[in-house]
C-alpha cells in the first residue's frame, strides 16, 4: 500500500486499516486521520507517536493496559487480536511447555502488581528466553523509568505493524 492510497482513505477505512497499530486503541488512529495528508511512512508514524507522547501519564498507562499479557490467558483462549496472535507466535510463545507458561504468568502477575499495568515488549523481536529475562530485569526498575521503556516497546510494536501494512522494510530497532 503506498502513501497516496493511505491519504485517499475516508475515516472509516482508515480506522479499519490502522485502528490496531496501537493495540486496542483505535481512538489514536481516529485522531491521526485528521492530520492527513502524510508525506510517507515516517510522517504517518510520527503522528501516532506524537499522540502517545502528548497524553498525560494516566492516558499513557491506559494504552499499556490495553495490551494483553504475553503468553497469557487470552493466548490460551484464542481471544487475542490477529496482530498480537502473530507476534506472540513469532516469539515462540504459542508453543511453551506448561512450566514455562506458569513461570511467565507468575512474573507477569508480579510486574502488574508492582506497576499497575502489564509487561509490554515487542514480541516479534524476541523469543521465550529473552521475554523471561527482560521481565525479570524490568520488574525491579523505578516506575518512571519503566513507564518510558514500556512506551518505547509500544512504539516498536506500532512501527512493525505500520511497516507491515505499508509493505515497507522496518527500521533496525
Ligand atoms: N504484553 C505485550 O507486550 N503484548 C504485546 N507485545 C506484542 O508484540 N504484541 C502484543 O500484543
UniProtKB/TrEMBL annotation:
Pfam families: OHCU_decarbox. Coiled coil: none annotated. Gene3D superfamilies: Oxo-4-hydroxy-4-carboxy-5-ureidoimidazoline decarboxylase. One of its GO terms (molecular function) is 2-oxo-4-hydroxy-4-carboxy-5-ureidoimidazoline decarboxylase activity. It is found in: Peroxisome. It catalyses: 5-hydroxy-2-oxo-4-ureido-2,5-dihydro-1H-imidazole-5-carboxylate + H(+) = (S)-allantoin + CO2. The keyword Lyase applies. Pathway: Purine metabolism; urate degradation; (S)-allantoin from urate: step 3/3. SUPFAM superfamilies: UraD-Like (SSF158694). One of its GO terms (cellular component) is peroxisome. Residues 7-163 form the Oxo-4-hydroxy-4-carboxy-5-ureidoimidazoline decarboxylase domain. Its EC number is 4.1.1.97. Keywords: Decarboxylase, Lyase, Peroxisome, Purine metabolism. One of its GO terms (biological process) is purine nucleobase metabolic process. InterPro entries: OHCU_decarboxylase, OHCU_decarboxylase-1, OHCU_decarboxylase_sf. Catalyzes the stereoselective decarboxylation of 2-oxo-4-hydroxy-4-carboxy-5-ureidoimidazoline (OHCU) to (S)-allantoin. Belongs to the OHCU decarboxylase family. This is 2-oxo-4-hydroxy-4-carboxy-5-ureidoimidazoline decarboxylase. It comes from Leptonychotes weddellii (Weddell seal). The gene is URAD.
Amino acid at each position: 500500500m503506498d502513501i497516496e492510497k493511505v491519504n485517499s482513505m475516508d475515516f472509516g477505512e482508515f480506522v479499519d486499516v490502522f485502528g490496531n497499530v496501537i493495540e486496542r486503541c483505535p481512538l489514536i488512529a481516529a485522531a491521526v486521520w485528521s492530520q492527513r495528508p502524510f508525506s510517507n511512512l515516517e510522517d504517518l508514524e510520527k503522528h501516532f507517536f506524537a499522540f502517545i507522547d502528548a497524553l498525560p501519564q494516566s492516558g499513557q498507562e491506559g494504552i499499556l493496559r490495553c495490551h494483553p499479557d504475553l503468553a497469557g490467558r487470552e493466548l490460551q483462549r484464542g481471544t487475542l487480536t490477529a496482530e498480537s496472535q502473530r507476534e506472540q507466535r513469532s516469539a515462540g510463545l504459542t508453543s511453551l511447555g506448561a512450566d514455562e507458561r506458569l513461570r511467565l504468568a507468575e512474573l507477569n502477575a508480579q510486574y502488574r502488581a508492582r506497576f499497575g499495568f502489564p509487561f509490554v515488549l515487542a514480541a516479534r523481536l524476541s523469543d521465550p528466553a529473552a521475554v523471561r529475562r527482560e521481565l525479570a530485569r524490568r520488574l525491579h526498575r523505578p516506575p518512571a523509568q519503566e513507564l518510558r521503556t514500556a512506551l518505547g516497546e509500544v512504539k516498536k510494536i506500532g512501527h512493525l505493524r505500520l511497516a507491515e501494512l505499508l509493505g515497507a522494510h522496518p527500521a533496525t530497532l
